[in-house]
Amino acid sequence: MAAFGSVFMPKMALATFENNQWSKASIVTSDSIQLHPGAHVLHYSSTCFEGLKAFRHADGSVHVFRMDQNIKRLAQSSRLLSLPEIDEAAVSKMIVDVVGEFASDVPEPPGSLYIRPTHIGTEANVGKAAGATATSMLYVLLSPVGDYFTGGAKALRLLLDETGIRCAPHMGMIKSGGNYASALGPIKKASEEVKADQILFCPNGDVQETGAANFLLIDGNEIITKGLDTSFLHGVTRSSILTLAADLGMTVTERDLTVAELLERAAKPEVEAVLSGTAAVLTSVGTFIHNDKEYQVGSGQPGPMADKLRQALNNIQWGKAEDTHNWLTKVC
Ligand SMILES: *Cc1c(COP(=O)(O)O)cnc(C)c1O
Hints:
It is built from 7 helices and 17 strands. By secondary structure, the protein is of the alpha+beta class. α5 (about 235-245) crosses α7 (about 305-315). The chain is globular, with a radius of gyration of 20 Å. The chain starts with 10 loop residues before the first strand and ends with a strand. The site of pyridoxal-5'-phosphate (PLP) has 14 residues, from α5 and β14.
Protein backbone atom coordinates (compact mmCIF):
# COMPACT_ATOMS: atom_id res chain seq x y z
CA MET A 1 0.00 0.00 0.00
CA ALA A 2 1.20 3.52 -0.81
CA ALA A 3 2.41 5.89 1.91
CA PHE A 4 -0.22 7.00 4.43
CA GLY A 5 -2.50 9.69 3.01
CA SER A 6 -1.24 9.73 -0.56
CA VAL A 7 -4.14 7.88 -2.22
CA PHE A 8 -7.60 9.46 -2.44
CA MET A 9 -11.05 8.24 -3.38
CA PRO A 10 -12.21 9.86 -6.64
CA LYS A 11 -15.12 11.72 -5.01
CA MET A 12 -15.64 13.82 -1.90
CA ALA A 13 -18.47 15.64 -0.12
CA LEU A 14 -18.52 19.43 -0.56
CA ALA A 15 -20.51 22.36 0.85
CA THR A 16 -19.86 26.08 0.46
CA PHE A 17 -20.70 29.07 2.66
CA GLU A 18 -21.81 32.15 0.73
CA ASN A 19 -24.22 35.01 1.43
CA ASN A 20 -24.25 33.99 5.08
CA GLN A 21 -25.50 30.48 4.51
CA TRP A 22 -24.35 26.96 3.80
CA SER A 23 -25.19 25.37 0.47
CA LYS A 24 -26.70 21.92 0.34
CA ALA A 25 -23.83 19.41 0.38
CA SER A 26 -23.09 17.40 -2.71
CA ILE A 27 -20.75 14.61 -3.77
CA VAL A 28 -18.29 15.87 -6.37
CA THR A 29 -15.09 14.63 -7.98
CA SER A 30 -12.14 15.08 -5.61
CA ASP A 31 -10.19 17.31 -7.99
CA SER A 32 -13.11 19.53 -8.92
CA ILE A 33 -12.65 22.54 -6.68
CA GLN A 34 -11.48 25.89 -7.95
CA LEU A 35 -9.91 28.58 -5.81
CA HIS A 36 -9.19 32.17 -6.69
CA PRO A 37 -5.43 32.85 -6.24
CA GLY A 38 -6.46 35.63 -3.86
CA ALA A 39 -8.45 33.23 -1.64
CA HIS A 40 -8.16 34.08 2.06
CA VAL A 41 -6.78 30.63 2.95
CA LEU A 42 -3.86 30.95 0.53
CA HIS A 43 -2.65 34.18 2.13
CA TYR A 44 -3.85 34.29 5.71
CA SER A 45 -4.14 30.55 6.49
CA SER A 46 -7.83 30.46 7.38
CA THR A 47 -7.84 26.67 7.34
CA CYS A 48 -8.54 23.79 9.69
CA PHE A 49 -9.04 20.08 9.27
CA GLU A 50 -9.89 16.85 11.01
CA GLY A 51 -8.68 13.27 10.81
CA LEU A 52 -10.90 10.32 11.69
CA LYS A 53 -11.42 6.80 10.43
CA ALA A 54 -14.07 4.38 9.21
CA PHE A 55 -13.59 0.67 9.90
CA ARG A 56 -14.93 -2.51 8.32
CA HIS A 57 -16.27 -5.19 10.68
CA ALA A 58 -16.23 -8.93 10.03
CA ASP A 59 -19.96 -8.86 9.05
CA GLY A 60 -19.15 -6.32 6.31
CA SER A 61 -20.71 -3.34 8.12
CA VAL A 62 -18.84 0.01 8.14
CA HIS A 63 -18.46 2.24 11.21
CA VAL A 64 -16.98 5.70 11.84
CA PHE A 65 -15.06 6.13 15.11
CA ARG A 66 -15.98 9.03 17.45
CA MET A 67 -17.29 11.23 14.66
CA ASP A 68 -19.07 13.57 17.10
CA GLN A 69 -15.77 14.44 18.81
CA ASN A 70 -14.02 15.29 15.57
CA ILE A 71 -16.92 17.42 14.36
CA LYS A 72 -16.98 19.29 17.66
CA ARG A 73 -13.27 19.96 17.31
CA LEU A 74 -13.74 21.16 13.72
CA ALA A 75 -16.42 23.54 14.98
CA GLN A 76 -14.05 24.78 17.69
CA SER A 77 -11.16 25.22 15.23
CA SER A 78 -13.45 27.09 12.81
CA ARG A 79 -14.66 29.39 15.58
CA LEU A 80 -11.17 30.14 16.89
CA LEU A 81 -10.00 30.98 13.34
CA SER A 82 -13.01 33.24 12.64
CA LEU A 83 -14.16 30.95 9.83
CA PRO A 84 -17.93 30.68 9.30
CA GLU A 85 -19.72 28.62 11.97
CA ILE A 86 -20.15 25.06 10.70
CA ASP A 87 -23.45 23.15 10.80
CA GLU A 88 -22.45 20.11 12.86
CA ALA A 89 -25.43 17.98 11.81
CA ALA A 90 -24.81 18.78 8.14
CA VAL A 91 -21.11 17.87 8.42
CA SER A 92 -22.03 14.62 10.13
CA LYS A 93 -24.36 13.80 7.22
CA MET A 94 -21.63 14.70 4.69
CA ILE A 95 -19.27 12.22 6.37
CA VAL A 96 -21.84 9.44 6.55
CA ASP A 97 -22.96 10.03 2.95
CA VAL A 98 -19.51 10.06 1.38
CA VAL A 99 -18.27 7.09 3.43
CA GLY A 100 -21.48 5.27 2.42
CA GLU A 101 -20.73 6.00 -1.23
CA PHE A 102 -17.34 4.29 -0.89
CA ALA A 103 -18.32 1.65 1.69
CA SER A 104 -17.09 -1.18 -0.51
CA ASP A 105 -13.63 0.46 -0.64
CA VAL A 106 -13.14 0.53 3.14
CA PRO A 107 -10.10 -1.74 3.71
CA GLU A 108 -10.24 -4.72 6.07
CA PRO A 109 -8.49 -4.27 9.44
CA PRO A 110 -5.74 -3.40 10.13
CA GLY A 111 -6.51 -1.02 7.27
CA SER A 112 -9.22 1.63 7.42
CA LEU A 113 -10.68 4.55 5.50
CA TYR A 114 -9.10 7.79 6.69
CA ILE A 115 -11.53 10.73 6.57
CA ARG A 116 -10.22 14.28 6.17
CA PRO A 117 -12.85 17.04 6.66
CA THR A 118 -11.29 20.38 5.72
CA HIS A 119 -12.66 23.92 6.12
CA ILE A 120 -11.02 26.81 4.24
CA GLY A 121 -11.63 30.54 3.76
CA THR A 122 -12.31 31.25 0.08
CA GLU A 123 -13.03 34.97 -0.15
CA ALA A 124 -10.83 36.51 -2.87
CA ASN A 125 -9.55 39.50 -0.91
CA VAL A 126 -5.88 40.07 -0.06
CA GLY A 127 -6.91 43.19 1.84
CA LYS A 128 -8.34 41.05 4.62
CA ALA A 129 -5.12 40.32 6.54
CA ALA A 130 -6.92 41.46 9.67
CA GLY A 131 -10.44 40.47 8.67
CA ALA A 132 -12.40 37.23 8.56
CA THR A 133 -13.25 35.54 5.27
CA ALA A 134 -16.89 36.06 4.27
CA THR A 135 -17.03 32.81 2.31
CA SER A 136 -15.69 29.32 2.85
CA MET A 137 -15.67 25.77 1.59
CA LEU A 138 -15.93 22.56 3.58
CA TYR A 139 -15.06 19.24 1.99
CA VAL A 140 -14.68 15.69 3.22
CA LEU A 141 -11.90 13.84 1.44
CA LEU A 142 -11.31 10.09 1.83
CA SER A 143 -8.08 8.10 1.77
CA PRO A 144 -7.87 4.31 2.20
CA VAL A 145 -4.97 3.43 4.52
CA GLY A 146 -3.16 0.20 5.31
CA ASP A 147 -1.44 -1.06 8.42
CA TYR A 148 0.60 1.77 9.85
CA PHE A 149 2.98 -0.76 11.34
CA THR A 150 3.90 -2.80 8.25
CA GLY A 151 7.55 -3.70 8.55
CA GLY A 152 7.28 -3.80 12.34
CA ALA A 153 6.90 -1.03 14.87
CA LYS A 154 10.11 0.76 15.72
CA ALA A 155 10.46 2.77 18.92
CA LEU A 156 10.94 6.48 18.13
CA ARG A 157 13.72 8.86 19.06
CA LEU A 158 12.32 12.10 20.50
CA LEU A 159 14.19 15.34 20.99
CA LEU A 160 12.98 17.10 24.14
CA ASP A 161 12.95 20.79 23.21
CA GLU A 162 12.62 23.21 26.13
CA THR A 163 13.27 26.43 24.23
CA GLY A 164 11.10 26.21 21.12
CA ILE A 165 7.31 26.02 20.92
CA ARG A 166 5.21 24.06 18.44
CA CYS A 167 2.94 26.96 17.55
CA ALA A 168 1.70 30.26 18.94
CA PRO A 169 0.25 29.45 22.40
CA HIS A 170 -3.28 30.60 21.49
CA MET A 171 -3.24 28.27 18.43
CA GLY A 172 -2.59 25.10 20.42
CA MET A 173 -6.11 23.65 20.36
CA ILE A 174 -6.72 24.46 16.69
CA LYS A 175 -6.06 21.77 14.07
CA SER A 176 -4.83 24.32 11.55
CA GLY A 177 -2.36 24.15 8.66
CA GLY A 178 0.03 26.89 9.75
CA ASN A 179 0.82 25.08 12.99
CA TYR A 180 2.35 22.16 11.07
CA ALA A 181 4.33 24.38 8.71
CA SER A 182 5.72 26.28 11.69
CA ALA A 183 7.04 23.06 13.29
CA LEU A 184 8.72 21.79 10.10
CA GLY A 185 11.94 23.80 10.43
CA PRO A 186 12.70 22.64 13.99
CA ILE A 187 11.78 19.02 13.12
CA LYS A 188 14.08 19.02 10.08
CA LYS A 189 16.92 20.45 12.19
CA ALA A 190 16.36 17.81 14.92
CA SER A 191 16.40 15.08 12.30
CA GLU A 192 19.64 16.31 10.75
CA GLU A 193 21.49 17.13 13.96
CA VAL A 194 20.53 14.31 16.36
CA LYS A 195 18.61 11.87 14.11
CA ALA A 196 15.40 12.51 16.05
CA ASP A 197 12.15 11.21 14.54
CA GLN A 198 10.07 13.90 16.23
CA ILE A 199 10.35 16.79 18.65
CA LEU A 200 8.50 16.65 21.94
CA PHE A 201 7.84 20.33 22.58
CA CYS A 202 8.44 21.15 26.26
CA PRO A 203 8.51 24.96 26.54
CA ASN A 204 10.17 25.94 29.84
CA GLY A 205 10.23 22.28 30.85
CA ASP A 206 6.44 21.73 30.41
CA VAL A 207 5.92 18.48 28.45
CA GLN A 208 3.27 19.24 25.80
CA GLU A 209 3.12 17.24 22.54
CA THR A 210 4.92 16.51 19.27
CA GLY A 211 4.19 18.04 15.86
CA ALA A 212 1.07 15.94 15.33
CA ALA A 213 0.55 13.61 18.29
CA ASN A 214 -0.13 13.71 22.04
CA PHE A 215 2.31 12.31 24.57
CA LEU A 216 1.54 9.82 27.36
CA LEU A 217 3.79 8.21 29.96
CA ILE A 218 2.96 4.76 31.33
CA ASP A 219 4.55 3.92 34.67
CA GLY A 220 3.36 0.56 35.91
CA ASN A 221 -0.36 0.80 36.53
CA GLU A 222 -0.44 4.59 36.09
CA ILE A 223 -0.83 6.54 32.89
CA ILE A 224 0.21 10.19 33.06
CA THR A 225 -0.45 12.93 30.52
CA LYS A 226 -0.80 16.69 30.51
CA GLY A 227 -4.24 17.91 31.61
CA LEU A 228 -6.35 19.72 29.01
CA ASP A 229 -5.46 23.39 28.64
CA THR A 230 -5.37 25.69 25.61
CA SER A 231 -1.69 25.05 24.80
CA PHE A 232 -2.05 21.77 22.89
CA LEU A 233 -4.35 19.77 20.63
CA HIS A 234 -6.93 17.72 22.51
CA GLY A 235 -6.60 14.36 20.79
CA VAL A 236 -9.55 12.01 20.44
CA THR A 237 -7.13 9.07 20.65
CA ARG A 238 -5.69 10.51 23.88
CA SER A 239 -9.14 10.72 25.40
CA SER A 240 -10.11 7.23 24.17
CA ILE A 241 -6.91 5.66 25.54
CA LEU A 242 -7.43 7.31 28.93
CA THR A 243 -10.99 5.97 29.07
CA LEU A 244 -9.84 2.46 28.15
CA ALA A 245 -6.97 2.63 30.64
CA ALA A 246 -9.49 3.42 33.39
CA ASP A 247 -11.68 0.53 32.16
CA LEU A 248 -8.63 -1.74 32.52
CA GLY A 249 -8.21 -0.62 36.13
CA MET A 250 -5.28 1.71 35.53
CA THR A 251 -4.82 4.99 37.40
CA VAL A 252 -5.30 7.90 34.99
CA THR A 253 -3.45 11.06 35.96
CA GLU A 254 -3.96 14.25 33.95
CA ARG A 255 -1.51 16.85 35.16
CA ASP A 256 1.54 18.85 34.10
CA LEU A 257 4.71 16.83 33.68
CA THR A 258 8.19 18.38 33.68
CA VAL A 259 11.18 17.28 31.63
CA ALA A 260 13.06 16.57 34.88
CA GLU A 261 10.35 14.17 36.11
CA LEU A 262 10.09 12.58 32.67
CA LEU A 263 13.83 11.81 32.50
CA GLU A 264 13.83 10.49 36.04
CA ARG A 265 10.89 8.14 35.41
CA ALA A 266 12.24 7.03 32.02
CA ALA A 267 15.15 5.31 33.77
CA LYS A 268 12.81 2.73 35.35
CA PRO A 269 12.89 -0.49 33.32
CA GLU A 270 9.08 -0.91 33.21
CA VAL A 271 8.27 2.62 32.06
CA GLU A 272 6.84 3.19 28.58
CA ALA A 273 6.30 6.40 26.65
CA VAL A 274 3.88 6.64 23.73
CA LEU A 275 2.56 9.11 21.17
CA SER A 276 -1.16 8.99 20.42
CA GLY A 277 -3.05 9.98 17.29
CA THR A 278 -5.64 8.72 14.82
CA ALA A 279 -3.14 7.59 12.18
CA ALA A 280 -1.04 5.18 14.28
CA VAL A 281 -3.17 4.94 17.48
CA LEU A 282 -0.11 4.51 19.77
CA THR A 283 3.55 4.65 18.79
CA SER A 284 6.22 3.73 21.34
CA VAL A 285 9.11 6.02 22.20
CA GLY A 286 12.46 4.32 22.85
CA THR A 287 14.83 7.24 23.36
CA PHE A 288 14.76 10.80 24.65
CA ILE A 289 17.46 13.21 23.51
CA HIS A 290 18.03 16.14 25.84
CA ASN A 291 20.92 18.63 25.94
CA ASP A 292 23.08 16.34 23.76
CA LYS A 293 22.54 13.34 26.04
CA GLU A 294 20.50 10.24 25.18
CA TYR A 295 18.17 8.55 27.66
CA GLN A 296 16.72 5.11 27.03
CA VAL A 297 13.01 4.95 27.91
CA GLY A 298 12.37 1.76 29.91
CA SER A 299 13.53 -1.16 27.75
CA GLY A 300 14.06 1.12 24.76
CA GLN A 301 11.62 -1.05 22.77
CA PRO A 302 7.86 -0.99 22.11
CA GLY A 303 6.36 -2.22 25.40
CA PRO A 304 3.51 -4.49 26.50
CA MET A 305 1.25 -1.73 27.89
CA ALA A 306 1.25 0.19 24.61
CA ASP A 307 0.31 -3.06 22.89
CA LYS A 308 -2.45 -3.82 25.36
CA LEU A 309 -4.01 -0.35 25.10
CA ARG A 310 -3.71 -0.24 21.30
CA GLN A 311 -5.39 -3.64 21.09
CA ALA A 312 -8.20 -2.56 23.40
CA LEU A 313 -8.90 0.41 21.12
CA ASN A 314 -8.53 -1.59 17.89
CA ASN A 315 -10.88 -4.27 19.24
CA ILE A 316 -13.66 -1.70 19.57
CA GLN A 317 -12.87 -0.09 16.21
CA TRP A 318 -12.79 -3.48 14.47
CA GLY A 319 -15.97 -4.77 16.11
CA LYS A 320 -14.15 -7.45 18.13
CA ALA A 321 -15.13 -5.98 21.51
CA GLU A 322 -18.40 -4.46 22.64
CA ASP A 323 -18.68 -0.71 21.95
CA THR A 324 -19.58 0.09 25.56
CA HIS A 325 -18.92 3.83 25.18
CA ASN A 326 -20.97 4.25 22.00
CA TRP A 327 -17.99 5.41 19.98
CA LEU A 328 -19.07 3.92 16.64
CA THR A 329 -21.52 5.39 14.11
CA LYS A 330 -22.80 2.72 11.75
CA VAL A 331 -22.77 3.91 8.13
CA CYS A 332 -24.09 0.75 6.50
C1 LIG B 1 -4.35 15.51 15.25
C2 LIG B 1 -3.37 15.83 16.31
C3 LIG B 1 -3.26 15.07 17.49
C4 LIG B 1 -3.99 13.78 17.70
O1 LIG B 1 -5.36 13.92 17.69
P1 LIG B 1 -6.29 12.67 17.44
O2 LIG B 1 -7.66 13.22 17.58
O3 LIG B 1 -5.96 11.67 18.47
O4 LIG B 1 -5.99 12.16 16.06
C5 LIG B 1 -2.41 15.51 18.49
N1 LIG B 1 -1.66 16.62 18.33
C6 LIG B 1 -1.72 17.34 17.20
C7 LIG B 1 -0.88 18.57 17.09
C8 LIG B 1 -2.56 16.97 16.16
O5 LIG B 1 -2.61 17.66 15.04
